[in-house]
Design goal:
The protein has 387 residues and is an alpha/beta fold. 36% of the residues lie in helices and 12% in strands.
């Protein structure tokens, strides 16, 4: 399977994380993605190391596989003309320049769509293109001002960021959704459109129950560590050798937990009989559970509780996560054609077969000559293939 987006050309004027993740996903689905970078330095993340890879950084490599790479100085007239030609030929343009920057270079939506009315033009910003256009949108800052840090961390500690640039990742995935929806609309109408995604909106949209709780009550939720504001036990509990995540989503699961711990009477205790009661008596509940869990190791409890139908898992590392995926036959990585370091595979599988084979992330301007020849005219050499 070459991919459902085979034949779709994506002009990637984005850098760092949200935009490149979006365009890499489109490449995974079969699109031809031409990544445009600054001459000399390239994408900012080429310098974000350690860790370093053979040709760049692991940060860059994680979101840029299966792309063609060209270096263009968009302030130079000849290079700018090539960038414009690429946008005029593209089915999709993805950019995350400061609002208005590409307009001044003849690469804004109005100019591009005037020549290419079918283009799906995706703009990714930090805080939108209106009143927040001048604000600098970095994931860490958006986690802070958007409220994610206020609900992350221990109750008696400082607010904490997520352990990955989660807002960038969510925004990149939202951008993919927007692009695919716009392409579906274009298939019906023949018209493209502008798709706008911003980090703050993606963050707020991801807060789900926490956001809805605030809208309903007017009270911002606070930090609870690994605890859930509405369910108990739904948290980490201490065993003899470490932590175990236990997630009882209903009373039946709690009854099975109590039985597996040799304390079936807990399920009949008025303090713990219902979820609402357990939330109201969380401290007593945790004390009762940890008293019993202290007699065994987390891995053993995971096996025992899982066998009893109770969702539970030992708190592990990223290495443990990859090992589990391998054990379950989920093949978490994909090896690029021609060798190189594997990357995390496209997470969706299809009954019609695998998505395209991956190629390594491009070296800076690796395909520049070939792309320039293709942009020179209809008679130029064809674009090289990836994967």
């Amino acid at each position: 399977m070459s991919g459902p987006l085979e034949g779709v050309l994506v002009a990637d004027f984005s850098r760092v994380l949200a935009g490149p993740l979006c365009t890499m996903t489109l490449a995974d689905l079969g699109a031809t993605v031409v990544k445009v970078e600054r001459p000399g330095s390239g994408d900012d993340t080429r310098a974000w190391g350690p860790p370093w890879s053979a040709t760049s950084t692991t940060y860059f490599d994680g979101v840029n596989r299966s792309k063609l790479g060209i270096a263009l100085d968009l302030t130079d007239g000849a290079d700018r003309a090539l960038g414009q030609e690429l946008a005029h030929r593209a089915d999709v343009v993805v950019e995350n320049f400061p609002t208005g920057s590409l307009d001044r270079l003849g690469l804004g939506y109005e100019r591009v769509s005037a020549v290419n009315p079918g283009v799906v033009y995706c703009s990714i910003t930090g805080f939108g293109s209106g009143a927040g256009a001048g604000l600098l949108g970095y994931d860490f800052v958006v986690q802070a001002v958007g409220g994610l840090m206020s609900v992350t961390g221990e109750a008696d500690g400082d607010p904490a960021k997520a352990g990955v640039a989660l807002v960038d990742v969510l925004t990149g995935k939202d951008a993919v959704i927007g692009v695919l929806a716009a392409l579906a609309g274009r298939a019906r109408t023949g018209r493209g459109c502008r798709v706008e995604v911003d980090l703050l909106s993606s963050l707020l949209g991801s807060l789900v129950n926490q956001a809805q709780g605030f809208l309903e009550t007017g009270r911002p939720p606070g930090r609870m560590g690994n605890r859930h504001p509405s369910i108990a036990p739904y948290e980490t509990l201490r065993c003899r050798d470490g932590l175990l995540a236990v997630a009882c989503g209903n009373d039946g699961q709690f009854a099975r937990l109590a039985t597996a711990l040799g304390a079936a009477a807990l399920a009949d205790d008025a303090r713990f009989r219902t979820n609402a009661a357990r939330v109201g008596h969380r401290e007593e509940l945790v004390a009762a559970l940890e008293e019993r869990l202290a007699h065994g190791d987390a891995a053993d409890w995971q096996t025992r509780l899982t066998g009893a139908g109770v969702p539970a898992g030992k708190v592990g590392t990223i290495a443990d996560g990859f090992a589990l995926a391998e054990e379950l036959g989920l093949s978490p990585t994909v090896a690029p054609v021609g060798g190189g370091t594997p990357t995390v595979r496209h997470p969706v599988t299809y009954s019609t077969g695998p998505v395209r084979k991956a190629s390594p992330p491009p070296r800076l301007d690796e395909h520049g000559d070939a792309v320039r020849a293709w942009l020179a005219g209809p008679g130029g050499a064809p674009l090289p293939t990836t994967g």
